[in-house]
């Protein structure tokens, strides 16, 4: 793996959205580096009927239009989630809409599902040269204007099923008005019922949750997800909360907060979900991961798999290889033969 600390430092000096475009361009040119692809067998995971060489995935939003799935897979990620894609292309919210909070190890974004639409993403996925052993998922959302969730999500699921290994129903972006209301248990039940006939290929289906759901509402929600036939949950998306100790001058911007300040909140919710689900769902822990220890903490709180976004942006493309290197000795220190043996041990 060639690390690129210099280019990461440079990217941190330009406008964040421009930096993201440059990072995508760099990945397309093969500048991100290349992990040799072999993860320690102790990191292999089976979940949702899929095999993952390692459990560390890139979270949705980094590659909204499925343009760099292969370069991301070659960095060492164990799975890649593209999207969020919506039925129609849309430009998203007004600029500026992406803010770095370097002193807090965080990002605030109010991108608003800027993407080129499902047709463009599927055209790319149809041409994708797969990296063997790296499952690819697609995260699905609704347009800001003219959305009809009970029609849109089934259409998206049906269209995408033949081309990806798993699908995610995103109900948790804070930047699409009304979206998070779909997390109410009766509405989740209605949605999953509407989606069921579109799932002929039986691709694993996950629901992505917000960390801002009141703890009291969680049990009904998880039960509705299970009863509706979904296979897993991603816990969590970004938060609207703003811990008072944030130091960066952008900390009062509106939008979803991710990275370090989200970590404990999303891990606590993951543990709560794991206690309710009791093994009936695959769980993907997401929020604030930036080290091997963070991965282990999520697994101990019940995760089968993990994802990250902000840590990757902050620490650069070498982070994945570093985590893959650091995890096996960390497991040995704890007397664990396999990462999967740590699952739920903190509950
Ligand atoms: C700039 C940005 C854009 C994002 N866009 C999406 C998105 O389109 N769909 C989605 O489900 N999550 C999106 N997310 C949320 C991430 O997938 C992830 O759930 C969240 O950032 C927490 O993980 P992290 O702390 O590792 O970043 C986005 C996050 C960021 C920082």
Keywords:
8-stranded parallel barrel; TIM Barrel; Dihydroorotate_DH_2; 13 strands; 11 helices; FMN; binds flavin mononucleotide; 3-stranded antiparallel sheet; alpha/beta; dihydroorotate dehydrogenase (quinone) activity; Dihydroorotate dehydrogenase (quinone); 347 residues
List the helices and strands and how they pair.
Blueprint: H1 5-11, H2 16-28, E1 45-47, E2 50-52, E3 56-58, H3 69-74, E4 79-85, E5 98-101, E6 106-109, H4 118-127, E7 136-140, H5 149-160, E8 166-170, H6 185-195, E9 205-209, H7 218-227, E10 232-235, E11 256-259, H8 260-277, E12 282-286, H9 292-300, E13 305-308, H10 310-315, H11 318-333
Parallel strand pairs: 3-4, 3-13, 4-7, 7-8, 8-9, 9-10, 10-12, 12-13
Antiparallel strand pairs: 1-2, 5-6, 6-11
Helix pairs in contact: 5-6, 6-7, 7-8, 9-11
The structure holds flavin mononucleotide.
Structural write-up:
- With 347 residues, the protein is of the alpha/beta class.
- The chain has a single domain (34-342), classed as Alpha-Beta Barrel (TIM Barrel), CATH 3.20.20.
- 34% of the residues lie in helices and 16% in strands.
- It has helices spanning 5-11, 16-28, 69-74, 118-127, 149-160, 185-195, 218-227, 260-277, 292-300, 310-315, 318-333, and strands spanning 45-47, 50-52, 56-58, 79-85, 98-101, 106-109, 136-140, 166-170, 205-209, 232-235, 256-259, 282-286, 305-308.
- The strands form three sheets. The protein has an eight-stranded parallel beta barrel.
- The radius of gyration is 18 Å and the shape is globular.
- The two termini are 35 Å apart.
- Bound molecules: flavin mononucleotide.
- Flavin mononucleotide (FMN) is lined by residues 59-61, 64, 84, 98, 107, 109, 111, 113, 139, 170, 173, 208, 237-238, 258-259, 262, 286-289, 308-311.
